[in-house]
Each structure stands twice: as C-alpha cells, then as structure tokens.
Amino acid sequence: MRASLFLLGCLTAGSMAAPTLLNDVYDYSSDLATYLGKVSKYIESTGEELIKSVNSCDTSKISLPSYASSLPSPSGMSPIYVAVGRGTQNYTCATSTSSSTPQAIGAVARLYNATCIAANYPDMLSLLPGIVYKEQLPSNEEEPLPPANLELLGHHFFRDTTTPVFNLDTLASRQYGIAITKKQDSIDAPSSAIQGSNGAVQWLYLTTINGTVGEYEAVYRVDTVAGSAPKTCQGMQSVFTVHAELSEKSDAPSDWQGWPASGDLAIQRRHVLPVPTAASRASTQRGLVPTEFRKNPRLRLKNLDRNNDEQHGLDRTLNASGLGAGGRGRGGGGRGAPRGGRGAPRGRGGPRGGGRGGAKGAKGGAKVIIEPHRHAGVFVARGGKEDLLVTKNLTPGEAVYGEKRISVESPAEEDGTVTKTEYRVWNPFRSKLAAGILGGLDDIYMRPGSKVLYLGSASGTSVSHVADIVGPTGNVYAVEFSHRSGRDLIGMATHRTNVIPIVEDARHPLRYRMLVPMVDVIFADVAQPDQARIVGLNAHMFLKEGGGVIVSVKANCIDSTAKPEVVFAREVQKMREERIKPREQLTLEPFERDHCIVSGIYKRSA
C-alpha cells in the first residue's frame, strides 16, 4: 500500500533538496519517464529561481488531495511534513480455507521526507506513488530513496493491532518526536488508485492519543497503492504480508517479511495551539502525580501474601552483616565494616586489608558455604566476616571487572573425584540490580534459561552477572549506545557466548529488530529524561505478554530541579502509560543516592 500521511502538530518543517537524479539505471516505466520529464522541464523553465528555492519550503501551499474531502477537514491546522512511506501490510488467517477471512494485525514502513516536493512541485508528488511502488528500498536505511533522493524521516509501525505509531526520532540529529494515533474515520481508495493484486487499502484519518511526543494532532493517510488482503484465506499462510505503499508494523517483529512499499506523510500544526512549557506538557500528557508516591518513594505497589520479615529476612541479614559497607575494595571489605546497614555510623575505619579498606574479604575453600538465594541463579556466600551476594561464574578462572572470586569444592564422589565450582562476588555499589536484590526486590523476572533485554549495558559489569544468572541456556541482549563502552562490552561477550552485544541507540529498536527475539524481561539503566518512552518502545516490540520490566531511575538525570520522590512518582505514571503495570518501587540507599528501582509487568492490552 502506498499512502500519503498528514501529521498535525507544531514542529518546524525540515528543508529538503529539489528532486535530482541518481547515476544508477532504473527500469524505465511511463510514470518514471513522465516524472523525469517534469524534472527537466522545471530546470529549463525556472533556471536560477529553482536553485534559490532548493532550501525553501512554504508548507502553507501543501493541501490534501481533492478525493480526501470526505474525511474530516484539517481546518485550523497547518502542514509540517509530507512523507512517502513504503512498507508491507500484515495479516493473519485462522485457517487456510475459503470460510476464513484475513484479519489485519499491523504493518511496517519507512517514511521518507517529501515536504518540499509537496510544497513546490505538487504535480510531481502525485507521480511518486506509481514510481516508488516499483522501487526497492536502499539496503542502508539512511541512504536516500530514489528517484527523488528523499531522506529518511522516520518509521511507521503498530504498538498493537489498533494503535499506529509514527516514530520520527530516526537519528541523533533528527529528533522530531513520535505520534501515537487512533483511527477516527476512513474512506475506500478511489478506483484510479494502483490496485496491486487485491486493491488499495483505505484512506484514513487518525488523531493522536496520550503518549505522543511533540504537538501532533492528527494523521491523514491518502493516495494509497495496493496493500489489501485477498477476500478469503484460501491457500494463505497463518501470517502473511502484502506489498504496499506505506504500511504500518505488525505487533511482533518476526512477522515482518518482504519488501516494504511507499506512501506520503505531512505534518501540520494547529494555529491556535500555543507551544506548551515543559511543565504544562508534563501535566497534560502524563497526568497527575499520585499523592501517595509524593509522600513515600519506597511505597510497595503489591500487597504481599507472605510474611515480609520471612520473605526479606535473607536480604536484611546480608545488608546488616556488612555487604552494604563493602564491595569497593578488590581484596577487602570495601569502605569499612563499621558502615554496616542503613543506620550504623559511616566511618572508613578498620584495618587495611585488601583494596581500599576494611578487613580482608571472605576466603574460599571449606570455610565458605554457598546457599541459594530465593531468586534462582543468585547465591549467598556465608563465611568470614560478612555474607556476600554471588553468581555462579559462567567462565571459571576469569574475572570481568576485578571482582573477587570464590572457589568451592563439592563433596568427593565415590570414585574420589572432587569438583570445584567458582562464584563471582556481585558488588552492589557497581550494579543497580544487585543493589535492588539486597533492597528486597520481590521478583527480578529472570532465571536460568531466560531471555533478557538489557538497555544501558555500559561496559558489561552487571550484564556479566545477568549472563551468569540465565546460564548457557539463556541469552542477554545487551544494548549500549557509547562506542567506548561498547568495545568493552564486546570484549566481555567474546568469553560469554550467551551475551549478544548491540552497540546502538535504544531509542531506535527498529535498528536492531533482526537481532532480538521476544524476551522474558527488560532491564533498563539508561539514565535519560525520556527513559520511560525508551523502555516502552522496546517493550512494545520485544517483550512478551506478561513479561517483567525493571527500570533503574536516577532522579538527577530526569529532573534535577524536582525532589527525587516526585521524579520517581512521575516515572511510575509514565510507565503506566506505556502499559507497564508497576508492582513495586524501592530506593537504592545506601548504595546509590537519589536512585530507585521500579519493577512491573507488561500488558499489551490496556
């Protein structure tokens, strides 16, 4: 299906070069011949004026096709972007018989910026559907789309089967926001539209809903080409795609197949709509902050059926026995045993053992007893002067960040053989997840065999312990934006084969959609103001229904002017809007200041 889309909002239109030719040779169709003839005519007739208008886009000249008059009028709004979208329409069939009819489950498309062509050359824009429909997409999505050299504007996909999303945050230099929409009206495509095998999909009018970033108001999808499903499911697969010009995205990334098709996108703004301040945008888009969260940042969101003292006794024992005090020193107890749990004096005293201070840490051998923690894959090393949180080393004999390792011998077998098992000490001062476990997290949603998407992996300190937890039958998909940290992450992953390092921006999950399957849990430690949206985008694309979400929130990175407890409450509300149902929230003192962890369950249906 090929379509024109009109997004209504208050963003500035980006300039775009006039249509030019590439040196490649294309199949020469009558539409392409007409298009290229018009290019030549404009060049000959306008001369220098054409060159002057290359970077000039008067978006007030943009208008909807006359056939779209049956859709609600965009009165009071002005266009910002027009884009050509090319993608596939996705359908599902209950059975492969004539008694079953195809059901739409979403779509996927790339959106290419055609704003200036729509403003300056509307007659040429009307030719693009038939041309782009026959073109293959560039192998590199950042390359321009021929034959008009259209730059990538964004991506179009579905959050669920009824919620189309237009993501215009494509590159670090092109952060145009995201429109989350809902269908309001539709009309059948005109008989003159390119039909494809089964007809052109409908023209649509959509309005934005809560969660939209940017002041977008509505979307028009017009000038569609092909994309309709056959009338029955006779001979069709359970999931299939139809070549189209502009398509949305299916709910599961694995459903995406085939060559996308094309369409147009235009963004407009409402004249009477003032540009809101950050405060007003937060109040209108995110809703009111629940009073209970303002008062108590450690509020539990789930009523526990079990006795709290019984359930968290092991963690409290660990914290009070000194792990909260140690960990920074490689050989000893870290900052000094006197610090203890949460109420003991701080102090840096104690004799200097190994590392930065405190007595020497626990020793391996017969003096150490390893006990399983209530979280599968996590263990407690008891012995010496303090109990330690540990994970079973996936690569015995190797450390990742200089952590202490403990080797424990198992009882001798009948034949006299003795096996050794190595564990790595998990430092809560260097891992938010370890700090959360010691704080009493009810559920970390990961266990041996789990698939984990880890956003904000840094150099892989915590990722290595998560890899230990999920073991050789599980996988950790570690996403990190920094190339410097990414090199360390890749180095760590060469020894831990269950870690898949992905050096990419977590804001753009489409860029690594071919690497990540559906996962059981997402852990996020990205420390960005829009981290709730980042988590939501990845959850909508990769997280299973009922999957776990754990988010580390650093208050100063989100709003340094507000009190931490207020920031935490706002983030919880944002998570709710992303269909994540929070279950518990706890602060990370004494390991981190002004940090909290929020965990919850993801539900695709509201």
Largest sheet: 12 strands, mixed
* Radius of gyration, in angstroms, nearest whole number: 28 Å
Give the total of domains.
3
Quaternary state of this entry equals single chain
Ranges where pLDDT stays below 50 over 5 or more residues in a row are: 1-28, 50-55, 246-361
InterPro entries: DUF2990, DUF3455, Fibrillarin, SAM-dependent_MTases_sf
Protein name: rRNA 2'-O-methyltransferase fibrillarin
Family: Belongs to the methyltransferase superfamily. Fibrillarin family.
Pfam family, one: Fibrillarin
Topology, element by element:
Layout: E1 3-8, H1 30-46, H2 48-52, E2 77-79, E3 83-92, E4 103-113, H3 115-120, H4 122-125, H5 128-132, E5 152-160, E6 163-171, E7 174-187, E8 203-208, E9 218-222, E10 225-226, E11 239-245, E12 264-270, H6 278-286, H7 291-295, H8 308-323, E13 369-372, E14 378-382, E15 388-392, E16 405-409, E17 420-425, H9 432-439, E18 451-455, H10 461-470, E19 475-480, H11 483-493, E20 499-503, E21 519-524, H12 531-542, E22 543-554, H13 555-558, H14 564-577, E23 580-587, E24 595-602
Signal peptide: 1-17
Biased composition (Basic and acidic residues): 302-315
Catalytic activity: L-glutaminyl-[histone H2A] + S-adenosyl-L-methionine = N(5)-methyl-L-glutaminyl-[histone H2A] + S-adenosyl-L-homocysteine + H(+)
